[in-house]
Design brief:
This protein is mostly beta strands. Helix content is about 5%, strand content about 15%. It has two helices and eleven strands; from the N terminus they run ββββββαββββαβ. An eleven-stranded mixed β-sheet has the order 1-2-3-4-5-6-7-8-9-10-11.
Length: about 220
């Protein structure tokens, strides 16, 4: 399908098992949806689709992401990798510094892949329903990030470095065993929502009142 903004191909829920080779010949594609196809692997040829702005590989059974996705440096809009079996991401993904939205939810990440911190253009990061026990300090390099979604992980705190992410509007920590949070969250001038519902391990600190007093909604 060709739209006003380019060529779009949706192969959503086609029971493919394997992506047909002729897909990789479609160098004109700007949108490619391969979600829900029982894919266990994706060819390195995907890196030849240099015109892609949106790529959806969600709801498959991928255990790896092709290194060559890092070659799609024009990928600006969305990258969906949720609901797979991923435990790591290739370092090449840090070259996607123009990408604005990344969804790596519902995988098996125990640590946030270092490549994510290199995606400096991210505005929204979704890493819910994984096994994260901590976040790296390098996450502070995501200086444009507005939404950080971390629901249902194993986090007990956040690194002090989060206090440097001054564009943050929303932090979702629902369902984590949070025991403590850095007070420098007060230094986030645009924070509008701190969601701590289903957190039973936190004694709310007094400085939450200051956060709420300036208009940030704190959900407990």
């Amino acid at each position: 399908m060709t739209g006003a903004s380019g060529v779009h191909l949706s192969l959503w829920r086609k029971a493919l098992g394997v992506v047909p080779d002729d897909v990789w010949d479609r160098k004109d594609l700007q949108t490619l949806v391969l979600a829900d196809n029982d894919l266990a692997d994706v060819s390195e040829r995907i890196g030849e689709l240099r015109g892609l702005r949106m790529l959806d590989l969600g709801h498959n059974r991928l255990r790896r992401v092709p290194d060559s996705i890092g070659d799609i440096e024009g990928l600006t809009d969305f990258l969906y990798l949720h609901d797979n079996k991923l435990t790591e991401l290739p370092p090449s993904l840090r070259r996607l510094h123009r990408l604005r939205y990344l969804n790596i939810s519902e995988n098996a990440f125990e640590v946030l892949p270092e490549a994510v911190a290199g995606m400096s253009g991210l505005i929204e990061l979704r890493a819910t329903d994984n096994r994260l026990t901590s976040l790296p300090s390098s996450i502070s390099r995501l200086t444009r990030l507005r939404e950080l979604h971390l629901r249902n992980n194993r986090l007990t705190t956040l690194p002090q470095a989060v206090g440097l992410m001054t564009e943050l509007r929303q932090i979702d920590l629902r369902g984590n065993p949070i025991a403590d949070l850095p007070e420098n969250l007060l230094e986030l001038p645009r924070l509008e929502k701190l969601d701590l519902r289903w957190v039973t391990t936190l004694d709310p600190p007094r400085w939450f009142a200051t956060l709420e007093g300036r208009g940030c909604a704190v959900y407990l």
